[in-house]
Amino acid sequence: MRIYAPTETTAVLERLLDEPSLARGVVHHAVLPVRAATFGAFPDWLDPRIVAGLASRGIERPYVHQAQAIEATRLGRDIVVVTPTASGKTLCYAIPILQAIAEDPAARALLLFPTKALGQDQVTEFGELARAAGLHVSASTYDGDTPAPIRSAIRGAGQVVATNPDMLSSAILPHHTKWFQLFEQLRYIVIDELHTYRGVFGGHVANVLRRLLRICAHYGSHPVIVCCSATIGNPGELAEALIGRPVEVLDHNGAPAGERHVLLVDPPLLDAGSGARGSALTLAQRWALPFLRAGRQTIVFGRSRVAIELLLTGLRESLREGFGPRTRIRGYRGGYLPTERRAIEHGLRDGEILGVVATNALELGVDIGRLDVSIVAGYPGSIAGTWQQFGRAGRRQGTSVSILIASGAPVDQYVVHHPEFLLEGTPEEARADPDNLHVLLAHLRAATFELPFEPGEVSGPGPVDDLLAFLGEEGHVRQAGDGRWYWSSEHFPASEISLRTAAPENVVIIDTTPDRPRVLGRWTCSPPRSSSTSTRSTSTSRSSSTSTSSTGASARPTSTGSTSTTTRTRTAQSRSSRSRSSRRRRPRAGVGSMAR
User: Fold this and answer.
1) Is 585 among the domain residues?
2) Residues 146, 149, 150: CA angle, nearest 5 degrees
3) Is the domain of 14 the same as that of 58?
C-alpha cells in the first residue's frame, strides 16, 4: 500500500497533533503571525541596468533595511545589518558593489565568509545578479579548493574575491605584493555571518582584519566595511571590536514572514526514579516521517555526526518500508566532499531532494531554497542558534513548522518547560578579545613579516614598540637604524597561526603511579619562545608520580613534589614509555634544547 501522498503542511500538523502518542509530548505550541513586508526605494543614482536586472528577478523595490544599507555605504559609513535568516542581506552589499563596478570597472571587493560552502554559494548568487544587470563582473572564490592556475588569474583580474579568514591570513596577506591590484582598488570589505566570529576565533579574526586594513592603508585604499549578522544581543559592539571602527547598526527588518508554528516537545518519561526519557532522535524521526510522506521539504538537525547517520538510516529504512521517497533523503555534515555538498544544496533548491538530515553545517545562510519544516533534535545551546535552525524553514513566506525536541539534559528540559525563554528571551551576546596577548603577539609577528612597523605605529590597543621589543628578544624581529622594525626570522609566521585556538600547543598531565597510567587533565598553554616544535615531559615524585607531555610548550603542572626532572623527547611517547619520562632522551635533530 502506497502511503506517500502530497498534503499541505498545516493538514499534516493537525493530523500529528491528533495522534495521542505525539500530542502528549507537546509542552508548548505557539503560532507566530504573518509579518508584512516594509519597503524602501532605490536611490536615483543607482545604475538603471542594476534596477532593471533586479526587476527581472522579481525585485521591484528593496526592503527598508536594504535601502538603508545602500544609502549608508554610498556615504562611506561602515554598517552592520542585523536581520533574521532569509531577509535578503545579500543585496545589502551586492548592490553597492555592483554600483561601484558599474562606475569604475577597476573597483574591487573582498568578501569574507566563515565557510567555503557559504562563499561559493554567495559567489554564485552574486554572478547571477551581475548577469541579470548586464554587467561583466569577475567574481570568484579563493579557498583551499581553488586550483593553482585559477588562483593566479584571480589575483590579477578578480573584481570580487570571496574567501575565508584562514585563507586571508595565511595565503593572501603574507603575499600582498601579488595582490596589489586588489588592495589598491579595494572599495568594499564584506564580513558575513558576523555572529560566528566570537571567542578565540573572533579575537583572531579581529587581528586578521587589523592586518588587512594596515595593508590597505599601505596601498592607499580605504574600503567601506559591510557586516551582516543574524540576530544577537550586541551586534554593534561585536562589529566595532572586530574592525576597530565605529559602525552604524541597521536592525529594522523589512522582509516579510509567513505564519510559523513553533512546537516544544518533551520525550516521554521512561523511569520516574532516574528521570530517564525517550530518545530525542527517535522522536524526531517520528515527527519528520509524516511530513516527508506528505511531500513537505523537511530538515532535521542533529547535534553530532553520529546522530546524523542514525537519523538518516532510520528515516530511509522507515520510508523504504512505507514505499515513501527514500532516495530523496540525504545527509549533510562535515566530512562530505565539496561536490556532494553542492549537489545536496542544488537538490534542495530545485526540490529534487525532499529531506535533509544535517549538523549545524547548514545553520549558516547557504541558500537551500524554501523548506516547510525544521526539526531540531536537542537544544543547540543558544537562543540565536535555535532560531538560526528554525529559520531554515519558511524562508520565503508560506506556513512553516519549527519543532524543538528536548533531550534528557537539564538545559533542554528547562528550555521546553519555560517557553518564554526561547520565544521572548533576548539572544545571547557575542564576545571577542582581540587584545589577548597570545593572539596579539602571533598576529604581530605576521604583520611584521608583511610590512615593517614604523616607530610608534599603533596596532590594536596602542603603540606596539614594547611588544616588538619583546619579539626582538626572541630573535623574531629587529630594529634597524632608521627605527623601523623588520622581520628577521627564517620562519613563515602566518603558517603557525591557528585561528581556532589561542595557542597550538596542548599539555597532557598523566599520573604514572598506578600500573596503568591515567590522564588527569589537558590544557592549552602558551607558545614557546622559540618557533621550533618539541615535546616536553615532566615527572614529579613525592607521594605520587605525575608525567606531563606537551608539544612546543613551556607549561608546568602544579605539584607538591620536591624534585622535578624535565627532559626533551623526540615525539609523543607511548603510554608505557611515559612512565619512564624522567630518563634523558636525545632531542629531535635541529631543535635546540629548551629545558628549564
Assistant:
1) no
2) 50
3) no
**393 and 261 Cβ atoms separated by less than 8 Å:** no
pLDDT confidence tier of residue 199, bands split at 50, 70 and 90: very high
CA 575/CA 184 separation, integer angstroms: 55
Q: Measure the CA–CA gap between 195 and 223, rounded to whole angstroms.
A: 21
The H-assigned helical ranges of 294-397 are 305-321, 338-350, 383-390
Answer yes or no: are the C-beta atoms of 192 and 365 closer than 8 Å. Answer: yes
Residue 99 lies inside a defined structural domain of this protein: yes
Domain final position from 379, 413, 447: 413
Strand partners, 395: 397
In a domain, 104, yes or no: yes
Torsion of CA 180, 182, 188, 191, to 10 degrees: -100
Give the residue from 328, 350, 336, 327 showing the smallest Cα distance to 308. Answer: 336
Closest by CA to 304, choosing from 377, 356, 359, is 359
The pLDDT assigned to 456 comes to 93
CB contact at 8 A, 230 and 193: yes
Q: Are residues 124 and 223 in the same domain?
A: yes
Helix, strand, or coil (residue 560):
coil
**Within this chain, do residues 285 and 359 fall inside the same structural domain, yes or no?**
yes
Which amino acid, residue 288?
Answer: A
- Contacts for 429 with CB less than 8 Å, ≥ 6 apart: 232, 233, 234, 237, 238
Q: What is the pLDDT of residue 363?
A: 63
| Domain end marker among 478, 496, 514 | 496
- At 322 the pLDDT is 56
- Sequential DSSP letters for 469-525: HHHHHHTSEEE-TTS-EEE--SS-GGGG--TTSS-SEEEEEEE-SSSS-EEEEEEEE
CA distances for 348 relative to 82, 292, 330, 353, 527, angstroms? 26, 13, 10, 5, 45
Q: List pLDDT tens digits, range 375-398.
A: 999 999 999 889 988 988 885 567
Q: Give the pLDDT of residue 398.
A: 78
- Residue 328 belongs to what domain range? 9-34+256-413
Do the beta carbons of residue 548 and residue 556 sit within 8 Å?
Answer: yes
DSSP code for 326: G
Give the chain's domain count: 4
pLDDT tens figures, 144-167: 888 888 999 999 889 999 999 999
465-474 and 437-450 helices cross at what angle (nearest 10)?
80
Q: Is the pLDDT of residue 117 over 90?
A: no
- Over range 506-529, report the average pLDDT: 71
Q: Which of 36-40, 366-370, 445-449 has the lowest mean pLDDT?
A: 366-370
Shared domain check, 260 and 246: no
For the cut 80, the answer to whether the pLDDT of residue 40 exceeds it is yes
> CA-to-CA distance for 346 and 256, rounded, in angstroms?
24
CA-based nearest residue to 438, from 557, 529, 534 = 529
- As a whole number, mean pLDDT of residues 423-436 equals 92
